[in-house]
Amino acid sequence: MVSSVMAGLGVCMLVLAGIAARQRKAAGGVAVLVAVICLGLAYDNFVIAAGNPMGFGETLEALSAPRFWMHALLTPLLIIAGGVLAGRLGVGWAATRAAAVAGWALVLALMGLGAVEDIVRLSLAPEKYADVLRYTNESTEGPPIPAVVTILVLLALGVMIWRSAGSPWLCLGSITMFAAAAAGVAHPWMGNVGELALQASIVATLSAATRAGSPSTRRGAAPTETPTRSGAEEAD
Description:
The protein is mostly helical and 236 residues long. Helices cover 73% and strands 5% of the residues.
């Protein structure tokens, strides 16, 4: 049953990736970033879903390692996506160079911490719950700090976007992710449901930003007009 749920979550992530990718012309690189993160989470869900039919072994273990790598390197990038969308939806300071520098500094720090925990110290151990067979990182101690910080930042950005543009999705998605993560202690699949809710809220916010105007329009670029000839030239 749970394996089927995980497969369904993976399909939903693919749909979100497609929705985000279709907005790349209007929204720019942030749409591609959101799509890539959705694809990474789709892979995560599909590997977990495949655990039962595949069984523990070298193949499942090899497929499981990239799950942790992607969480370590992709999750903090949600801060960049959230910051860009906040700037486009009226949160003025989020569009400044100082905010971009501070955001990237935080993201790189979280990536470094995540890389130490889930790449350098990665130690896979088999685990079974319900009908799911998966590998976990047995070297992990305490809460996942990079993920927690990322969600807190997204929550703050979500509140600001809600106030400035009336779009509640990122705020609600971040709250849902926190609740699902807490429930995931007893029911691990709930954490994946929370990830889907968060990604859906980000895609919804991306759509709101796209509707607000294209990148060129937001930069204030005036449309190019074809000069008309003067009356004297027309008379000639």
